[in-house]
Each structure stands twice: as structure tokens, then as C-alpha cells.
């Protein structure tokens, strides 16, 4: 998909250069979201100027339009973890093979994806050096050095960095790339209770990123033993769903690692009684994948649709001068509008480019997903008002200049809520509750997210994967929701016929 998208998108930067174009503006997408989702997605992320394809497959340039979204989420999350007394640090990108191999179960899960440095210039390296796919094995040898007694605990570190995971067949911008940005938190505690509490506290921050910033509904739950983090004790996640493809997508994960890594890396401490004990550890992360989920959920046939809280530009002001109109007065009104909104804390700009028509500008900023467009023409000038147009539903309303700030705030709040409500309604319409294997297969073929009673046995999950393997990919567990519906006594597992222990979400996934 990436290479095809590269060809189809090399000219899709907003000028009138593409083959299939709308005549009036030279803008517009050549693929529709419902007709060809993969091509639509590839086109949107390039045409909206979020990414640029790079000459190494699976690597992408994050342009300012995307980077600003990442920075907004980073600002929120960083402040929240600092309230939890978690400190930022930075560990090197390179990992020695000896350290990497120490935690066998863990690294087996990543082995095919590890990229290696084998040369320096033209000289072969005696010892090959790995590039981090994640940093447990990078960081924990030093945790064993820094943690000696109970006073050294808890140790709570986070780093904002990049990681590299090389092995996969279908790179997709944001969703599956060979290098991506993320934060990874690594914490160590004296007790399991402290570790358990933090796992859920971090997971709630991830829910807030998706729901309060990206306007995407997510389900909080626990991963199955088969799907948990390799080498960990248990994994919790927030799960989103893409109705167009019928696939679940893991939004972010918060793992309790238990004492497995403490055992491997000898991370011990002396407790108050002078006894040696092993620490309890967690690790947790979210990545730039979040941005891809946002594009997939909210985007439409005009392009990107940005939730107001993460949009680097919330309001674009476009002058609409007609023939014989007082152009300067209109421009002055646009500048005044931007100043008023900026002083009130909104991210607003005016588009004064004289080589494009107002219609072209409308399409351009719609493609880029700006939540609110304000138009000012001679009539608006005469009535001391502006016309506001919403990106999410194209609704238009005239706002008196006197009420500008208050009305814009209300509209942006409403846009966020409307995006969330629409996404939730679509997601909920895709959830199917099933009790039997036949119902399960029917729902799977209808691209549903399936809630089914399950016996919670690994062999049964492997069997479901094997029985559903096909061109579209196998079905697997997404998560067992914390919010469990009632499970009547005598309910049987949909796949094995054994007594069911819990309700679990199943489906295909990214």
C-alpha cells in the first residue's frame, strides 16, 4: 500500500496537480472513505500535509501539522505523570546483544523486529549492536544498580523517544511504521499493590488522551494471556475500533511486569526489616499511532477532520472580497477577528493569500481538517458579524462580532462532543453480542467487534485464531472489558462449549 500511495500522493500537496480533481478548486481526494479505505487513508495523511513519504519504506516524515498534535498530547500527559512524581530521563538508542538476550520470553516477542548495526563505515563490527524496539532490557540493568534499599523506591522514570521495529509486511503511516515516537514509562515498587494501582492510573490517562483530546471512544480492559506483553504479568489496554475496516486497534498499553524482570536483572532491595526482596515493576506506553487512529475515525471524503483540542489551528479566517468591495476593510476585519480570538486563547490565523480564490481556500482548509472556518465578506462587514462554518457537519451560522469569543468557544466544545458522539454511535453499531460459534462467524464476516462469553483458555483462543485464518487475517481477543456485563450462571463459551468465565471482545485487528 505504501508504494502505491507514494505514487498516487507524490503530487497531492494541495495544488492543482493531481489527475482526478474537482474542476473548481484543483483540490479534493480521488478516493472515498467507504470505497477504498486504504487508499483514502494514504491520500488523506499526505494531502493534509501531516506526513511525507520517505525513501526508506516504512519510515515517514512527520510534518508540523502532525507533530503539533503529538506535542499537544505530550504536554497533557507529561504534566499528569509529573503530578504522579514520575521523572523524565533518556537512555541510549543502542542495546548490546548480551543484555538483549537476558530476558528470553520478552525478547522472543520482538526478535523478528529488531534492527541491528553491523558496520561502522566499511568495517564490520566485532559485536553487532541492536537498536531498541522497547527499553526494558536497556534500562533494567541500571535499575538493579540504583535500587539498593526500600528508601530508593519507588523508582519512577519515563522517556520520550523513538523506537525501531523492522519486520512487517504492510507499513501504514502512523499505524505501523518502522520507526515511531512514543513515551515509555518504567517504574519499580516495593509492593504489588502499588504497581497494580499505577497500572490503572496510567490507563485512565490513556483513556483521557483518546476521549478528551482525540474524541475517540475506547474500551478499557485486560489482555488475554496470549496477547499480553511478552515477559509481563498482565497487560491492560484501551481499545478503539475502526468501523470502515471492521478492525479493532490497540490504543495504548499499561503493563504490570510483576517480578519477572526483577529476577532476570537482579533488581533487589532491602526492606525495613533488613530482608532482601525483589521489586514489582510496570511499563506503559502510547505512541504516534494515536494520530492514525484519529485520522481513520474522524476523516471524511473532504479530508482530515481534527478535534479542536489537538488542532494546531482551531479557526481559519478567510476574507471574501467581492468585486468593488472595500477589500482593505475586509482584511482589517479579518485581522481584528484573529487578534480577538488569539487574545482569548484560541489558535487562529487568517488566510490572506491573493493567488487563491476563497473557494480554493475553503477546500484547502477542509482538507487539513481545521475545526472552524470564519468567512468575512462585505455583507458581514456591514452587519458587524462573521459567518462561521463547522468542519464536522458543514453547519453555517452568523455570529455578531460582540459575541465572537463566547460563540466560538461554544462551537468548538460542541464540535468535540459531536465528533465523540458520532464516533461512539458508529462504534456501538458495530458491536455484536454473540453466544454461539455460528453467530460469531456471521458477526465476523459482517466486520463486527464481537462480545462473547469465553472460558478464558489459551488453547481455545489459539483454536479460534486457527479456525478464522484467512485473507482478512484471523480473529483474536481484543480485551476483556473491566466493565463486565452480567454473566448468567450456566453460560457456555461460544467457542469451546465449556463454562464461560468472562465476557471478552473479539475481532480482527491492526
UniProtKB/TrEMBL annotation:
Known EC number: 6.1.1.15
CDD domains linked: ProRS_anticodon_zinc, ProRS_core_arch_euk
GO cellular component, one term: cytoplasm
Gene3D superfamilies reported for this sequence: Anticodon-binding domain (3.40.50.800), Bira Bifunctional Protein, Domain 2 (3.30.930.10), C-terminal domain of ProRS (3.30.110.30)
Broad enzyme group: ligase
Annotated ranges, domain Aminoacyl-transfer RNA synthetases class-II family profile: 69-307
Keyword Ligase in record: yes
Gene Ontology molecular-function annotations: ATP binding; proline-tRNA ligase activity
Keywords for the protein's UniProt record, in alphabetical order: Aminoacyl-tRNA synthetase, ATP-binding, Ligase, Nucleotide-binding, Protein biosynthesis
PANTHER family: BIFUNCTIONAL GLUTAMATE_PROLINE--TRNA LIGASE, PROLYL-TRNA SYNTHETASE
Protein's name according to its UniProt entry: proline--tRNA ligase
Species whose genome carries this gene: Nelumbo nucifera
Organism phylogeny: Eukaryota, Viridiplantae, Streptophyta, Embryophyta, Tracheophyta
